[in-house]
Amino acid sequence: MDWGFVNVEAGAGDSYKVACFAMICHHCGERYIEFFPNAKRENLFIGMIHAFNRMGSSRRNLILICTIYILTAVLLVGSKYLSCVNDLYGECLGWE
After folding, report:
1. Helix, strand, coil shares of the chain as percentages rounded to 5?
2. pLDDT beyond 50 at 95
3. Cα–Cα distance between 49 and 91 in angstroms, integer?
4. Which candidate in 25, 37, 58, 73 could, as Cys together with 30 as Cys, close a disulfide (CB 3.0–4.6 Å)?
5. Are 50 and 21 in contact, with CB atoms under 8 Å apart?
6. What is the predicted pLDDT for the residue at 18?
7. Residue 27, pLDDT score
8. Between vectors from CA 36 to CA 57 and to CA 71, what angle results, nearest 5°?
9. What contacts 7, CB < 8 A, 6 or more positions away?
């Protein structure tokens, strides 16, 4: 998995940069690509959750993946990152 950046041309000749999240399954070669306004860590987690979900991971595996990455992020970034944990779990579990 990795980030790339592309320029998007908007109307009236304006352009802006967006982040492109890409993930490839090393078993079957299936590709997943999603665009985000930036490459912040929470967008990485959301992209990973969407990719694993699209590639057929079970809900149990998604919960485990979410837990590992969220705890890693909290350890690396600190408690200020805890504010989006509920949002990420909601995304992971399909909560509205």
Report:
1. 55, 25, 20
2. no
3. 8
4. 25
5. no
6. 95
7. 75
8. 55
9. 15, 16, 17
Q: Is the pTM of this model over 0.85?
A: no
CB atoms within 10 A of CB 23: 19
Q: What three-state secondary structure class fits 41?
A: helix
Residues in the chain: 96
| Residue 36 backbone zone (phi > 0: left; psi -120 to 50: alpha; other: beta) | beta
The helix/strand/coil state of 31 is strand
Q: Which residues of 44-53 are buried (b: 16+ CB within 10 A; e: fewer)?
A: bbbbbbbbbb
Structure tokens at 1: 């998995």
Other CB atoms within a 10 A radius of the CB of residue 88 amount to: 20
Closest of 93, 75, 94, 74 to residue 84, by C-alpha: 74
Q: Report the distance separating Cα 45 and Cα 88, nearest Å.
A: 8
